[in-house]
Amino acid sequence: MNIDISTIFQIAGVGIIVAMIHTVLKQMGKEDMAQWVTLIGFVVVLFMVVRMLNDLFQEIKTIFLFQ
């Protein structure tokens, strides 16, 4: 398994962008939209982490099953 550092930077980038959009929308008085942006950002990052966990479990499976 090769953990790519670019994935970590992608997650950090999504977090920074979502935080900026959330702040701008909240200052404009659109708290509902700001919460939706945060939720969507969380789901995107969650899918990225799930994909990384899937790779990890596949690697563990190949190690212990000698495939």
Automatic annotation (TrEMBL):
Keyword Membrane: yes
Database matches in InterPro entries: Spore_III_AC, Spore_III_AC/AD
Residue stretches spanning the membrane: 7-24, 36-53
The UniProt record lists the keyword Membrane: yes
Pfam families hit by this protein: SpoIIIAC (PF06686)
Top-level taxon of the source organism: Bacteria
Keywords carried by this UniProt record: Membrane, Transmembrane, Transmembrane helix
Protein name: Stage III sporulation protein AC
Organism, as annotated: Cohnella endophytica
Record gene name: spoIIIAC
